């Protein structure tokens, strides 16, 4: 192997280490978000639902928590390993009302006002 080939291996290892750290940070952020969503789902009528058959979605992200609040529906996709945070909910039909992410967070802001 030439020196440049070794350099490439070292760079790839460095990139992999950075990605691992970033992936860990992202996973922690989702865990924190889901703790708040789980708390919210205990306060209002809520259920778990499945995203429809869509090959463009990662199969580990097909679960959705649906929360019906006085200001409108809010829903979040869940990574399958986080389902254990939502064992208090049962599975129900996919009742998504078509809200966008922006509408969801506007509703959340109104809920807290």
Could you walk me through the main structural features you see in this protein, from its secondary elements to its overall organization?
By secondary structure, the chain is α+β, with helices and mostly antiparallel strands. The chain has one domain. It has two helices and three strands. The chain has helices at residues 3-43, 101-111; strands at 46-50, 63-69, 72-78. A three-stranded antiparallel β-sheet has the order 1-2-3. A hairpin with a 2-residue loop joins strand 2 and strand 3 (72-78). It is globular, with a radius of gyration of 19 Å. The N and C termini lie far apart (64 Å).
Keywords:
single chain, 113 residues, alpha+beta, three-stranded antiparallel β-sheet, 2 helices, 46% helix
Please report the distance between the alpha carbons of the first and last residues.
64 Å
Q: Going across the major beta sheet, what is the strand order? A: 1-2-3
- Please provide the ordered H/E string of secondary-structure elements: HEEEH
Mean pLDDT across all amino acids: 86
Summarize the structure.
The chain is of the alpha+beta class and 113 residues long. It is 46% helix and 17% strand.
What is the fold's blueprint, element by element?
Elements: H1 3-43, E1 46-50, E2 63-69, E3 72-78, H2 101-111
